[in-house]
Structures are given as structure tokens and as C-alpha cells.
Write a structure and sequence with these properties.
By secondary structure, this protein is an alpha/beta fold. 33% of the residues lie in helices and 17% in strands. A seven-stranded mixed β-sheet has the order 2-10-9-8-5-3-4. Strands 11-12-14 form a three-stranded antiparallel β-sheet, with helices on one face. α7 runs parallel beside α9. The structure holds pyridoxal-5'-phosphate (PLP). This is Phosphoserine aminotransferase.
């Protein structure tokens, strides 16, 4: 089956096979990773290697901490203002889709967020010109969702933060490790693992160290970055098996030649899919402005919308599943994360052409 789900999503076959071979007994430990103490030497080695490999992949600078947390990216919508704002501090939000909107709304419980740009009136199909943005003096952070999973809108470069002391914060849940990123441009990068780098249950936070240690007094211990940083993500029992799986994915991405190579593959996959949509003479349409179309999540509709259910049904019969668009936007969406092979996208494109020939 080719699984086009938005997350949890397809994982590399070789990674799953390696995990399978180690499922019952991990190396010479005599037990499964699921059974190990998180403080034992085997798991210590697993989490340290996962961190080292992620640091290599993203060239994470020394002055940044890498945290393996729980609670999903959604928990970070609250953790970020709690950690880097006082209740009266402001933060700026650029909202280019539903996830950024959720982050903005959650932040309003813990700081004073300003919505400085929203794409809602244009159905979240655009990213603003950075020159037109009016950032607020004193805003502690400027928040973006680097890739909007539902709407298929992706930042191709990033705005500069106008405020001294303010930092750029990005939700990279759905394009994490899909391409090279200059981590030093960001104060915080966060991502749920379950799209590109592992199973659900692990949330990765990459944070500049000087931002740690300023949490509001009421911050729950589990949301305080200082606690997790001081304890190397082992303050309480972490999602051990998920971290192990992420580690296997990081190894695989390095073996592929790193994120530069991974990005080339992603550009190629997305390219053939968008070309098929744009070349269909309007039979298929992608509403997103061309320059900001996502390499990861490709939403599209049929001109004859009454055929959409049939499209999804026939595709599933051909073993291409989870192509239904998010319930809030309808249509179709093909999520083509790192682990989606080129063959999966080629098969989808061939099916789209055939479907058009029969129904066009
Ligand atoms: N941010 C983005 C961009 C997402 O795609 C998602 C989930 O799909 C989330 C946040 C929420 O993540 P989680 O379910 O890990 O809380």
C-alpha cells in the first residue's frame, strides 16, 4: 500500500525492517527497547546517538539544546509562551493555516499575542511579503508554521525578526528534516515526530540555550524547558521506543546523504505531482499560490467535485490510501513525506491521468 496520510505517516521500509529485527531482543541487551530502563546504558546510548545524528543532520549549533518531549506539537503551543514570555509580554503571529491559528489562540492564555497577518480571508493559500509585515515593538517572538499540513502552504524563506531580543519560532511538524534549514535563524524549532521522523508520541524541540530558564512561575514542570534540558530529556520516563525509532530514521537520513539529498528527492516528487495537476487543463486544481506550495502536503480538488468520492474510492482500490482532504477543507490531499517513495507518487500521477481520461 502507498499511504498518503498526513500523520501518523509512512515510515521508511528499511527502518521498519531494522526495528522488526530488533523488536524482541535489542542487540546484546537480552531485552526489547520497550522493556529497558530509560536510565540504563543501552537506552542512554540510544538517546545520545539519536541526538548526535539529529544535530549532524540539521547542523544544530552548539548553543542550541535538542529536547525529546511528549504531548505533541500542540503542547508546545502553550509551552512556548510559558517559557519565553511573562503574562503581559506580547508575541507576533503570522497565520498561514489552521495550525498557526491554533498556536495563536493557545498562546493568548499565557501571553498577549498579536495577529500580524492572516491568510484566512484567502482560504490560506498564501504567505505574506515579509516587507509588508508590521512587527510589534517588544514582541518576544514571531511565530510561524513553516509548513501548514492541512492547507499545503510552506515558507520557502523566513522573515527576519524586527525586535531586538525577539526570536523567530517555527512549528516544523510537517516539514521537519525534509530539507536543509539554517537553525541559527530560529530561537525555537519544534515538531511532532509523526510525519517525517518517527511514530507519534515524540515531540522534538530545538531551542537556543539563552531562552531556557525564564519560565513563568506557574509553568507545569513537564512544560519547563529548563527541567528537560538539565535532565537531558530524562526528567521523567520519556517515550523510549519512539525515540529509538526516530534514531533509526535519523541514521537512515544520514545514510541517504543528509538533508541536501533528501530535499532533492522531495523536490522531484512534489514536482511531478504539481505538474500533473497544473497540466490537467483544470480537471485537477491546487489552490495554493505556486511559489509557496508545500513539498510535503499537496492539496487538490476536482473541477467536477461530485467525482471526488469516486476518485478516493478508486485510488484506495489501487492501494493508494488516505487521499481524502482534511475534513475542514475537503477535496484531496496527498502527503508525500520523506518516506514516500518516488514510485508512490508516480503511481498516483498515472492513476490521476487515467481517471481524467475516463471522467474528463
Ligand atoms: N502543527 C502542525 C503543522 C501539524 O501538522 C500538527 C498535526 O498534524 C500539529 C501541529 C499538532 O501536532 P500533534 O498532534 O503532535 O499535537
Amino acid at each position: 500500500v502507498f499511504n498518503f496520510a498526513a500523520g501518523p505517516a509512512t515510515l521508511p521500509e528499511n527502518v521498519l525492517k531494522k526495528a522488526q529485527s530488533e523488536l524482541y531482543v535489542y542487540q546484546n541487551s537480552g531485552m526489547s527497547v520497550m522493556e529497558m530502563s530509560h536510565r540504563g546504558k543501552e537506552f542512554t546510548a540510544i538517546i545520545q546517538k539519536a541526538e548526535a545524528d539529529l544535530r549532524e543532520l540539521l547542523a544544530v549549533p552548539e548553543n542550541y539544546s535538542v529536547l525529546f518531549l511528549q504531548g505533541g506539537a500542540t503542547t508546545q503551543f502553550a509551552a512556548i509562551p510559558l517559557n519565553i514570555c511573562a503574562p503581559d509580554d506580547s508575541a507576533d503571529f503570522i497565520v498561514t493555516g489552521s495550525w498557526g491559528d491554533k498556536a495563536y489562540k493557545e498562546a493568548s492564555k499565557y501571553c498577549k499575542p498579536n495577529l500580524i497577518w492572516s491568510g484566512k480571508s484567502e482560504k490560506y493559500t498564501k504567505i505574506p511579503a515579509f516587507g509588508e509585515l508590521k512587527q510589534n515593538v517588544g514582541a518576544k517572538y514571531l511565530h510561524i508554521c513553516a509548513n501548514e499540513t492541512i492547507h499545503g502552504v510552506e515558507f520557502k524563506d523566513y522573515p527576519e525578526v524586527g525586535n531586538e531580543g525577539g526570536v523567530l519560532v517555527a512549528d516544523m511538524s510537517s516539514n521537519f528534516c525534509s530539507k536543509k534549514v539554517d537553525v541559527s535563524k530560529f530561537g525555537i524549532i519544534y515538531a511532532g515526530a509523526q510525519k517525517n521522523v518517527g511514530p507519534s508520541g515524540v515531540t522534538i524541540v530545538i531551542i537556543r540555550k539563552d531562552l531556557i530558564g525564564k519560565a513563568q512561575g506557574s509553568t507545569p514542570v513537564m512544560l519547563d524547558y529548563k527541567i528537560h534540558d538539565e535532565n537531558n530529556s530524562l526528567y521523567n520516563t520519556p517515550p523510549c521506543y519512539g525515540i529509538y525509532m526516530c534514531g533509526l530514521v535519523f541514521e537512515d537520513l544520514l545514510a541517504q546523504g543528509g538533508l541536501g539529498e533528501v530535499e532533492k528527492k522531495n523536490v522531484k516528487k512534489a514536482g511531478i505531482l504539481y505538474d500533473a495537476i497544473d497540466g490537467s487543463k483544470g480537471f485537477y486544481r491546487c489552490p495554493v499560490e505556486k511559489s509557496v506550495r508545500s513539498l510535503m502536503n499537496v492539496p487538490f480538488t476536482l473541477e467536477k467535485s461530485e467525482l471526488e468520492a469516486e476518485f478516493i474510492k478508486e485510488a484506495a482500490k489501487e492501494k493508494m490510501v488516505q487521499l481524502k482532504g482534511h475534513r475542514s477543507v475537503g477535496g484531496m490531499r496527498a502527503s508525500i513525506y520523506n518516506a514516500m517513495p518516488l514510485a508512490g507518487v508516480e503511481k498516483l500521477v498515472a492513476f490521476m491521468k487515467d481517471f481524467q481520461a475516463r471522467h474528463g
